[in-house]
Amino acid sequence: MTQDEFAREAHPVAGIRLGTAEAGIKRQGRKDLLIIEACEGATCAAVFTQNAFCAAPVQVARKHLVSNPRWLLINSGNANAGTGPQGLLDAYATCEDLAKSVGAIPSQVLPFSTGVIGEYLPVEKIRDAIPRAVSKLNESSWESAAQAIMTTDTRPKIASKIVVLSSGAPVTVTGIAKGAGMIQPNMATMLAFVATDAKLDQSILQELLVDVADRTFNCITIDGDTSTNDACVLLASCQVDSQSLKPGTQDYELFSAAVLSVCSDLAEAIVRDGEGATKFIRILVEEAVDPSEARLVAKTIAHSPLVKTAFFASDPNWGRILAAIGRAGCQDLIIDRVSVWLDDILIVENGGRALGYTELQGATVMKRKDITIKVKLGRGCVSTSVLTCDFSYDYVRINAEYRT
Amino acid sequence: MTQDEFAREAHPVAGIRLGTAEAGIKRQGRKDLLIIEACEGATCAAVFTQNAFCAAPVQVARKHLVSNPRWLLINSGNANAGTGPQGLLDAYATCEDLAKSVGAIPSQVLPFSTGVIGEYLPVEKIRDAIPRAVSKLNESSWESAAQAIMTTDTRPKIASKIVVLSSGAPVTVTGIAKGAGMIQPNMATMLAFVATDAKLDQSILQELLVDVADRTFNCITIDGDTSTNDACVLLASCQVDSQSLKPGTQDYELFSAAVLSVCSDLAEAIVRDGEGATKFIRILVEEAVDPSEARLVAKTIAHSPLVKTAFFASDPNWGRILAAIGRAGCQDLIIDRVSVWLDDILIVENGGRALGYTELQGATVMKRKDITIKVKLGRGCVSTSVLTCDFSYDYVRINAEYRT
Prior knowledge:
Two copies of one chain form a homodimer.
Chain A: E1 16-21, E2 33-38, E3 43-48, H1 56-64, E4 71-78, H2 84-102, E5 109-116, H3 123-135, H4 142-148, E6 157-164, E7 170-178, E8 191-196, H5 202-215, E9 231-236, H6 250-272, E10 280-288, H7 291-303, H8 305-312, H9 318-327, E11 339-342, E12 345-349, E13 352-353, H10 359-366, E14 370-376, E15 382-389, H11 393-401
Parallel strand pairs in A: 4-5, 8-9, 10-14
Antiparallel strand pairs in A: 1-2, 2-4, 3-9, 6-7, 7-8, 10-15, 11-12, 11-14, 12-13
Helix pairs in contact in A: 1-2, 2-3, 5-6, 7-9
């Protein structure tokens, strides 16, 4: 996917309707409220931030998830986080408001908020705007929905895919996201909402989402910060005329690959739109002993401000990559077995600069906008991949000036 | 200690001589070689970086430490790291050169290097300069020594203290340091050399150094990066006419407090001279279950680029501090019991903004140059303290432009 392909065509998903409204939560004149409605019989899976200080809407959504929810209520402009007991009451109140408006019970509504931490949710404004968003519910509003959940995002993030089951029935997977919890958790939170018309039991849907989120959204990182509000939802409207999809079947493999592809595209779009990002960096760690070691090394490199500033400067400063690998905490790492590539250039082997490597080769790679750092640990056969971006003046500016 | 008191008077240490020279390692016209010599009968303790990619001199110094070394050979301008087998040969060669010059055996020399990673050590230049540095050895050159080990440091770092034993004999502890491994590990490495005329057995000296380093140099952090070359040495010339100091005695307590004080001052000086630092931040974590939990929370706050950029902007953005606490990984953290102070202002209690806290109060504290973040976890009775600084445009500039 290239940078220009973010806002690609969003295929409507049968049984999933979306409606937006201007609630004026943080400022006037922009869509900041989104309602997603799944038809009766739909199933819903969700994963949430692991941050202990999770926001009020996350706490409520976690509880409501067991009630087979069919409505998602999402606002931007205010995170309703760090708001204590009042924040919980506010989150419940907005669920009640939407439930009343559509004739449901409040526990069928999952609330999501993204925006400033520590300010109370303007419940009245949301209450007023809900009927307007409900009146607009339709299956074609994915673009408008992607815009309504943006905060500092510079562009909407949409991914969509159609696959054809063995019966000949087409299945659609469409998703939107906003970035990025790890870039700007104070206001921004990573949120992703993905829907399909495929038929799946809730437990299978949940297992799939956990697996996919772990391989996509959990593999992107900007600065190691985890938002209080991160969430990802997968809705299945079950409108496709087929048996429920079950793991182990060819149709399930096809379908789950489509979900993985959509979530991968959304995750990549979040990193590419990272605050201040000028470079897109893929970190491949190979030959690790186990997945946790592979991820530990990849994330240590990805979080190193020294590596990230070197990439911003297009400086092939491989010593910083080595130092990050060395401090990642691998038990008994034999540094002579470690090798490091920048794209296709071998830069480190036998614990030092590779024979034949020249600074010019490194500098050539570093001028690119998309760069892969590949690390072979020489310890086992497990690989992982983590996406990140560089660290620029603009990152400091945006995060220093955000509230002013 | 205030910012102006770094380069305070260095009391000479009987039995410890220092000599510097201009070797022209990275550039001409500056002292870049330092030799420290301890008299016969001295004992020597050292601690080194935990980075698996430790530099050649670190590997050699670790081996030589068992040979009761009496000479330290330190160069700035080149780290001799990431240099593979050749780097090891080079480090050994410089030890031999110094040993020849002073009539010792090579294993009595500990080598230390700080500077660019990945370039071979200019052994010839060092060989030429060693006799000049040896010829200048004397007990009064602490200031000159502190300057010779500087890289991007803006000022030399010296701390010195005299305590009087129960016998009436004065004991001196004097140390120098350069910063800072965690700020600019590529060239800069944290090095500290502390000497005393007190009499201590090597094993006791080593135990003391491990404990003191853990409470001082291991409690400062800028960006979480650990250098390939970090090292800290404690030399005891044993010239004071007394019994060997033993733990459990009043004299030992007095002496070890002096070593702790000197190392604390040096550690603080390193943070205050951090690259691009505009603010000095002390993070106190109290009421933790155990020391590792306390340190985990303190370091998670200290490493958060979002917290650090907020401090740079003087923005009392307490949501970012909360988010860092929440993701630190405390098992079953009860967020309602957590409270957070900025200096003497209570900003968070019961999982949200404190009653009565106003943005104005927070803004007033944030304008200060020295700020303490105090976190009470409400879980146990263990405390810790970590020192760090903010994250400015200059950090990005210095680390992006370093090699150009």
